[in-house]
Automatic annotation (TrEMBL):
GO terms for cellular component: extracellular region. It is an enzyme of class 3 (hydrolase). It comes from the Bacteria. GO terms for molecular function: alpha-glucuronidase activity; xylan alpha-1,2-glucuronosidase activity. Keywords: Carbohydrate metabolism, Glycosidase, Hydrolase, Polysaccharide degradation, Signal, Xylan degradation. This is Xylan alpha-1,2-glucuronidase. Residues 1-20 form the signal peptide. Residues 149-467 form the Glycosyl hydrolase family 67 catalytic domain. Residues 468-692 form the Glycosyl hydrolase family 67 C-terminal domain. Gene3D superfamilies: Alpha-glucuronidase, C-terminal domain, Chitobiase/beta-hexosaminidase domain 2-like, Glycosidases. One of its GO terms (biological process) is xylan catabolic process. Its EC number is 3.2.1.131. It comes from Hephaestia caeni. Homodimer. The lineage of its organism: Bacteria, Pseudomonadati, Pseudomonadota, Alphaproteobacteria, Sphingomonadales.
Length: 714
C-alpha cells in the first residue's frame, strides 16, 4: 500500500515532505523532482556518453550520475555511444578523442579541476564534463549534480573550477578504541576492530560525500596519537580504508606519536638527531608506503599538552619535523607539523607562545613540511582574532586548521553554522605584504610563492546515523569542503546551496533558514563569550559556563586567566601596557587592535582590560552592554526557534522534530550561559542589572555546583 502511494506520488511528481528521513543521505539525497525541474534536468541528461572502459574513479563518477539521476528522475539515463541531443558527455580528451576538437581550456584545471560546458558536438547539443584526470571528472559530475539538485539552469553552462588549496583535509580525532576526542556524533566511523576484513559500505559513502565537496585527505586518527597506530595490524586497517577512498581521490594520512621509536621500536630514545631513530622512521615509512602507495604523510602534535616531541631532547620543532620529512621524502610524503603549542613552564601570555616558538624557525623547515596553525592564537574559541603566525613565516608553507566539531560551540545540539567563522579567518588581513595579505592568500601559498598548500578541519563525523550528531552540523562539514576548494565563496551562498540539497529548493524555506544559519554564530558568541571574552567553558569537557574557575594547575587553563575580571573591570590587556600580544601582528593590525577607537566590539576584551563603567561607542557602559549582549544571544536563539516553528510543512517529520528539540536545548543552555555568566560577573562588579534585564534564575553557588561527569567527547 505504502509502495503504491509512493509510486503514485512519484508519478504525480510530488516530493512527499512528510516522508521520514534520518539524515544519512547528507546533501546527496537526490529525491524525486517536481514536474517542472524534472523536465529541466531530463532534457539535459537524456543519455550519458562516457569512455568504454572506465577507471575506478570514472566508474565512481558514472555511478554517482546514475544514482543521482535515478533519484531525481526515476530512472538512470541510457548510455550513448555517439553524441545525441541532451546527452551528458563525460571524459578526458585522452579518453574521448572527439572532445579534442572543442579546444577546451583544460590546462589551468590541474589534476583535480573540471569544466562543464554546453556545446555542440558532432552536430548534437550536449553538456560536456571534461577534465585532465578522472578525479577531475568525478568532481565535475558532483558539481553538475549540485546544479541539478539546486534547480540551476542547465542548458547554457560554461563553468570551470579548480581547487585553490592543494591539500584539503579532514582531521579525525578518532582513537583506536573508537572513542572520539571532542566527538559528539557517536563513536568513530572507523570500525577498527573489524577492519581490514570488513569494509563497511559507510566508508564508501564517506568518500562520496567528501569527494562531492572536494576534500582530498583524511587523517584517520587523533593528534593525541596512540603509538599502536603504526603497528602492522593498524597499518593494514588504514590500507583497507585507503583502498576504499582511492577512487574518490582521497588520501589517507596518519597522526603519529613522536615517541614511537621508543614505545614500538624498543629504542632507548626518540631523539630526532639519533641515527637509529631516523632509521626507524625511514623503515616505518617504507613499510607504510608498501601497504599504501599513495599515503599522504604524517600529522604531528609534538611537545604540546603532554605529547612527546623533539623538545624532550632539547631539539627544535624544525629538527623534529625535518627528521620525519627525510623519512617520507623518497615517497613524496609530507609532514604536517602542528603549531598548537603552549608550555607549562612558560610565563608568556598564551596567545603569544606559538609565535615566539615558531617564528624564529622560519626558513629552517625541510621542503616537505607544512606548519599547521589554528585559526586563532588560543584554541578554537567562538571568536578569536587570527593567529599572528599567519603572515609572519614567509619561508614556511602554513596550513589553516579549523574545528568543524563544536567543542567550544555547544557540541552537536546547538545550531551554529560555522562558515561565517571560517570565512572571518580566511578573510582576515595580516598586512604582511601590505593591504590585502589575507590569511586565505597565505595558506593558498599565493602570498609567498609556495607550491605546498593545505587546510584542515577537525571532523565532526561519527557513527550516528546522521553522521554529525545533527542535521545542521552537516552544513559545517559541507561548508568546510566548499571553502577549502574555493576560499572566496561566501558563507551565505554555501548555506543556500546546502539547504536546497539537504531540504528543499522552495524559497519560502531557503530564505528564512539561510538567515537563521547566518546569524547563528554571532548568537553563540553573544550568549557564551561576548565582546572578545574567550575560554569561559567548564573544565575538561568544556560543556557549559564556568567563568569563575581559577584554581587549575596551569594558569592558562583557567577561565579567570582569560577574563581577568575583578571589582574594577574585565578583559585582558594585550597592548604594550599588558602582555603586548598586539606586537606580534603587522603594525597596521597591531595599531588597530591596540587602539580603543578602532578595535571594535568583537575583540574588545581580548585586547583590553577596562573598567565596568567604561563608555562604549554606543554611550552605554561596558557592564550594561555585556549584560545585554548575553541577552541578545539568548533572544537570537528564541528567534531561531520561532523561524523553525513556522517551517514544519517543508521538512519531513523526523528531521523537523530533531532540529526543533535541539533548538529547545540550545535555548535552555543559552539561558544558562547568560545567567551563570551574569551571576558571576555581578558578584564582582556589584552593579545593578540594566533596566529590564531579568535577574539570573539561580544564585551563583547553584551554577558553580553543577557537575557533568558524563559529558561526551572528553
Ligand atoms: C583542544 C582540545 C584537545 C585537543 C587540542 C589539540 O581540547 O582535546 O587535543 O585542542 O588541538 O582544543 O591538540
Amino acid at each position: 500500500m505504502t509502495r503504491l502511494l509512493l509510486a503514485l506520488a512519484l508519478l504525480l511528481g510530488i516530493a512527499p515532505a512528510a516522508h521520514a528521513e534520518d539524515g544519512y543521505d547528507l546533501w546527496l539525497r537526490y529525491r524525486p523532482l517536481a514536474a517542472a525541474p524534472r523536465a529541466v534536468v531530463a532534457a539535459q541528461a537524456a543519455a550519458i556518453l562516457a569512455p568504454a572502459d572506465p577507471s575506478p574513479s570514472l566508474r565512481a563518477a558514472l555511478g554517482e550520475l546514475d544514482r543521482g539521476l535515478a533519484g531525481l528522475l526515476g530512472a538512470p539515463p541510457p548510455r550513448a555511444t555517439t553524441p545525441r541531443a541532451g546527452a551528458l558527455v563525460i571524459g578526458t580528451p585522452a579518453e574521448l578523442p572527439r572532445l579534442t576538437a572543442l579546444g577546451l581550456p583544460l590546462a589551468r584545471l590541474g589534476d583535480e579541476g573540471y569544466l562543464i560546458r554546453s556545446v555542440t558536438l558532432d552536430g548534437a547539443a550536449v553538456t560536456v564534463i571534461a577534465a585532465n584526470t578522472d578525479i577531475g571528472l568525478l568532481h565535475g559530475a558532483f558539481a553538475w549534480l549540485r546544479l541539478a539538485q539546486t534547480g540551476a539552469r542547465l542548458d547554457d553552462l560554461d563553468m570551470s573550477s579548480a581547487p585553490r588549496i592543494a591539500i584539503r583535509m579532514l582531521d579525525h580525532w578518532d582513537n583506536l578504541d573508537r572513542s572520539v576526542e571532542r566527538g559528539y556524533a557517536g563513536q568513530s566511523i572507523w570500525d577498527w576492530w573489524r577492519l581490514p576484513d570488513y569494509r563497511d559500505p559507510r566508508y564508501t559513502d564517506y568518500a562520496r560525500a567528501n569527494a562531492s565537496i572536494g576534500i582530498n585527505g583524511a587523517v584517520l586518527n587523533n593528534v593525541n596519537a596512540a603509538p599502536d597506530m603504526l603497528t602492522p595490524r593498524f597499518i593494514a586497517k588504514a590500507a583497507a580504508l585507503a583502498d576504499v577512498f582511492r577512487p574518490y581521490g582521497i588520501k589517507v594520512w596518519l597522526s603519529v606519536n613522536f615517541a614511537s621509536p621508543k614505545v614500538l621500536g624498543g629504542l632507548p630514545t626518540a631523539d630526532p638527531l639519533d641515527p637509529q631513530v631516523a632509521a626507524w622512521w625511514r623503515a616505518k615509512a617504507d613499510e607504510i608506503y608498501a601497504a599504501i602507495p599513495d599515503f599522504g604523510g604524517f600529522l604531528v602534535k609534538a611537545n604540546s599538552e603532554g605529547q612527546p616531541g623533539p623538545g624532550d631532547y632539547h631539539r627544535s620543532h624544525a629538527e623534529g619535523a625535518n627528521m620525519l620529512a627525510a623519512a617520507l621524502r623518497p615517497h613524496h610524503g609530507i609532514v604536517i607539523w602542528r603549531a598548537f603549542v603552549y608550555s607549562a613552564d612558560n610565563a608568556e601570555d598564551r596567545p603569544r607562545q606559538a609565535y615566539s616558538e615558531f617564528k624564529p624557525l622560519d626558513g629552517r623547515f625541510a621542503a616537505n613540511v607544512i606548519l599547521q596553525v589554528k585559526n586563532g592564537p588560543v584554541d578554537f574559541q567562538p571568536r578569536e582574532p587570527f593567529s599572528p603566525l599567519f603572515g609572519a613565516m614567509p619561508e614556511t608553507p602554513l596550513a589553516l586548521e579549523v574545528q568543524i566539531t563544536k567543542e567550544y560551540l555547544g557540541f552537536a545540539t546547538h545550531l551554529v553554522y560555522l562558515a561565517p567563522l571560517f570565512e572571518e579567518a580566511l578573510d582576515a588581513d595580516t598586512y604582511a605584504k601590505g593591504k590585502g595579505s589575507t590569511v586565505a592568500k597565505v595558506i593558498e601559498g599565493r602570498l609567498d610563492g609556495h607550491a605546498l598548500s593545505a587546510i584542515a578541519g577537525v571532523a565532526n563525523i561519527g557513527s550516528d546515523r546522521d553522521w554529525t550528531g545533527s542535521d545542521f552540523n552537516q552544513a559545517n562539514w559541507y561548508a568546510f569542503g566548499r571553502l577549502a576548494w574555493n576560499p572566496d565563496l561566501s558563507s551565505r551562498t554555501i548555506a543556500e546551496e546546502w539547504i536546497k540539497q539537504t531540504f528543499t529548493t522552495d524559497p519560502a524555506f531557503v530564505a528564512p533558514v539561510a538567515a537563521m544559519m547566518m546569524g547563528s554564530r554571532q548568537a553563540a558568541v553573544d550568549y557564551m563569550t561576548p565582546l572578545g571574552l574567550a575560554h569561559q567553558m567548564a573544565t575538561g569537557h568544556h560543556y557549559g559556563p564556568a567563568p569563575w574557575v581559577g584554581d587549575l594547575d596551569r594558569p592558562e587553563w583557567n577561565p579567570t586567566y582569560y577574563n581577568r575580571a575583578d571589582a574594577n573591570g574585565i578583559g585582558f590587556d594585550r597592548t604594550a601596557s599588558g602582555s603586548d600580544a598586539v606586537a606580534q601582528y603587522a603594525p597596521p593590525v597591531a595599531r588597530r587592535f591596540a587602539d580603543l577607537g578602532t578595535v571594535g566590539d568583537d575583540y574588545l576584551l581580548w585586547f583590553h582590560h577596562l573598567p565596568w563603567g567604561y563608555r562604549m561607542a554606543s554611550g552605554d557602559s561596558l557592564w550594561n552592554t555585556l549584560v545585554s549582549r548575553y541577552g541578545r544571544g539568548v533572544d537570537a536563539v528564541a528567534a531561531m526557534q520561532r523561524t523553525w516553528a513556522g517551517l514544519d510543512r517543508y521538512v519531513d517529520r523526523e528531521r523537523y522534530a530533531k532540529a526543533a528539540t535541539f533548538l529547545a536545548i540550545q535555548h535552555r543552555e543559552a539561558g544558562w550561559w547568560r545567567d551563570a555568566s551574569i551571576a558571576y560577573f555581578q558578584s564582582l562588579s556589584k552593579l545593578p542589572l540594566p533596566p529590564g534585564a531579568r535577574p539570573p534564575a539561580h544564585d551563583l553557588d547553584y551554577y558553580k555546583a553543577l557537575r557533568f561527569p558524563y559529558a561526551p567527547g572528553h
